Amino acid sequence: MTTAYSRRRMLQFLGAAGLGAAGLAACAPAPKETEPLAADDPKANEKTFSFASWTLNEEAGKPVVQGLLDTITTKDGLTVNPVSYPYNEYLNQLTLQVRGDKLVGAAQLDIAWLGALAALGKLRDLGDAAKDGGYTSTALESGQYEGKQLGLPWTTGAIGLVTNKELLSRAGITEFPETIEDFEAALVELKGLGGGVVPYAASTKVAQLKDILFWMKTFGCTLLDGDRVTIGDDASVEAVTWYKKLYDQKLIAPDVDRFDARALFGQGRAAIYDDAIVGKGAVIKDSPDKQLADKLDPVARPVLKSGDDPQAQLWGHVIVVVEGEAANTATSFARWLTSDQAATDEFFAKLALPPTTEKGLASDAVANDPFTKAFSERITKTASQNPFWRFPEYAQMETVIAEQVQAVLIGSSSPADAMTTAGEQVQALVK
Amino acid sequence: MTTTLDTPVLAGEEREARPRRRSPLDRERPAVRVAAWVTIIVFGGFALLPVYWMLATALTPDGKVFAYPPALFPADVTFEHFASLAGNSQLFDYLVNSAIVSGVTAVLSVIVSAYMAYSFSKYRYRGRRSLMYLVLSSQMFPQALLLVTLYAVFDAYDLLNTYTALVLSFTTFTLPLCVWMLKGFFDTIPDSLIEAARIDGASQLRIIHSVIVPLSVPGLVAAGLFAFVRGWNDFIFALTLAGPDKQTLPPGLANTYLGEAQTAWPELMAASLVVSLPVVIAFIALQRFLVGGITAGAVKG
Amino acid sequence: MTTATRPAPPRKQGTPAQGLSGGAFAILLVLPGLALLVAVVLYPLISSLVTAFFEQSLVEPGRRFVGLENIRAVLDSDFLPLLRQTLVFTVGTTLVPFVIGFALALALNTRIRGRGFLRGAFLLPWLVPAVVTSFLWMWIFNANYGVANGVLEALGIVDEPEAWLSSPGTAMAAVIIAKTWASFPWMMVMLLAGLQTVPPELHEAAQVDGAGTIRRFRSVTVPHLRGIIGLVLLLELIWNFQHFDTIYVMTGGGPAGTTETFAVAVYDTFYKGHDLGRAGAIGLLWMVLLLVLVVGYLRVVDREEKA
After folding, report:
1. Is there a contact between C272 and C258 (Cβ–Cβ < 8 Å)?
2. Res C20 pLDDT > 80
3. Which parts of the chain are coiled coil (chain C) (predicted)?
4. Using N-to-C axis directions, what is the helix angle for B163-187 and B89-122, rounded to 10°?
5. What is the pLDDT of residue B191?
6. What is the topology classification, in CATH, of domain C49-306?
7. Chain B contacts of C193, Cβ < 8 Å?
8. Which residue segments constitute the domains of chain B, with CATH numbers given?
9. Which has more confidence, B136 or A405?
């Protein structure tokens, strides 16, 4: 009886679903067709467009970017509609917008996201606009995807090690170690300071475990060789083994991502951490130490053998333009925002984000800022792109690697097994 | 005693007319009172300590927020984070959008669910059961996937970046709770009342509006409040379907305070508390409708 | 008097056996809701289910029919741990808030001082914007500066900070606690309201017959609340299966995937992997699984009702 009864119920569920299906034919909307627009189409010169940007809505960035927008709108008679999503949701939302042809205009992008958005095939090649913009070659490179200049660089830097000079000198470290071996010894010294100091607030949470890729590179893993993923080779295993050793000796701490690392560093509880130049403001704001700004010192990542080039991941924001209506206007807007001397000066003065043009970098404000200068010389100079960025599924690759590294850290997998698995899974995503 | 016991369970009208009785537990042994207080202190602590922590954080100056060990009772109190909210006009826009979306959702949801629930409760027809389960099963699929198609659907009807898109989605997602709950409520209204109205010549629609609705005010208010909170709390639909002008509070807060370089904890906590307050006050005010509003809404086969 | 010697059984309330006539009107009443369901849920649902049988990318155009390949791929890759974790999370976040909500509802149903205020105050966790809740708890449980460690250390319960969210043993419990905090108030309100509808006569009669507090709870209160309990549990079960932002924010599914659920997997597969087919396949399996759970649950409820 009961079984018959439940079968009837199952049928009712299915019946319900079927009934809905019947209603579909009537309701299914026809997909909208959009024709690609030629660059010389007058519509491409329309004066109204959207500008998607997360900086535009954050507490610190908002007044600055809004001010820049106000300047250009009055100057050129444009109407710019701001679009904004929280940083963590930004790429997903922008993907939906661009995919559905909903975004008309320009968008700010983290350089790591270029591959994913480019795959939609709707971004304009900005090669002509970039040509005489006076951008540095590193900056230009950060906006390139498969040989096309899809983004104009807005700010370019790198993710590297930032240290607290005071803590280092208290531990007797006057010269930052050049090799991994010395680095490790320095961490032990720092641990000896006591007081709950985390010597190196390295990322150990999923969100930024990607930082480990550049430690792998330091150990000699190329990450990618053509289309072959090399994670899982000896160098990568060594790197993770080393990371695990630091973890077990509590030289790095569990449950840390970029945000946590900044918090610890700001409190003087971490001596070294990984960050891009954009993090400086946050660290200083949340620190009780009013002199912290003077104690910040960016340093080159230690290398395996003395004399090797230090590894760092390129970091930056670019502006892309979606092909279609108002694309010409949006392009000149993007060009102005990223290369106009007054605009980049303002951007640097208020947000401390380095400009991308030779002239901008040469300006007094930038050239004389010790932190920015040191950061460029020691870190950005040898920084390189993350080779996985060019794959649209980069975010998934990053998660796969992070999970495997975590498995090593919590002891549920050996470095060799975990890296082999990570390599295979990433390879499967390369396609 | 026997007669009291056998009296049919009171329906809305009589229930309202009945003076509120003292709970039978009033005359309980001290053991029960102690148990009640222990429960309140233990679970109440779990409920309110994090709220206290939000408040403490909102009052802590920037430099001390991440201190460890944390200052459980902030020695150094600042009101700057609350003050800075006043200067943020956009926050007020988000609040207004949230109030509109949640309010309209609540009203629409009550209307749509009441009709549906009434039909399920008082009529018998083929496919009734199936429809009831359809309502329930509408939540059994990943919303992240629904969202993307929904985005295209709303786009096709030019409803993206409108209140309408949000209201329609939220209303639909509140149907399972509201319909099933209201059906339980209507089940307790005796048919004799409806028959009597019909004999007096009232039309079917009129019966609903002038007989059922007045009897069900508490239930309708309860359903409305739940629908309100559904709209109030949603993040991902609001983020995706509403443009910058129609953005509600949850995405708005994330947008403003959870940034690339910085999570502005004290401001975020201050803002969350401030925007929650009006709703809490509304809740306390509406509580007398709510209590007694949700009858034993039955999950029956 | 014999009937009065034991607590009365719950009575069926005034549901008519026959129902009213007027079929067309009945359907008319259902139409607005049905239209919403079809447009907002059913059409997207079916079109997503269809993608389960295709290879399709979020970012690249075109799609290719692959039959059951996606479903097979999902079942082949760590499906069981994912299923187990999903069930642990779903059942945990359904039962724990239920117990707390029920206990508070009972406590606040007694005539204690300040209950009006407490009823309001306990709603706060539910009304704090949910997006903030996850961040709040992530912070509370943080290994390096979280207040949970601060309090426990001050009380001498732990010697050194624990990494709650980064240890496989505690991460799931931590996310369940966070979700519990956000959802027990509405259960409390539902159950409290249900308690108010228990006719005092039932309790009085039982008390006259000498039934103690616990016995009255079991034989009067619980049977009377069966309907509301059933509804609350059923909906929580379905919603928690769906829930993902608490996990996503607090642990990102880590450490090493030990808090990953179907909901997180769908999100990652969809937005990060851009694999619509595979996401659809997870959705399909999810729906089948929930249908089985819900049908089984309703069957149990039915059987109890008949008994």
Report:
1. no
2. no
3. none
4. 40
5. 87
6. MetI-like fold (1.10.3720)
7. 222, 290-295
8. 2-81 (no CATH), 83-290 (1.10.3720.10)
9. A405
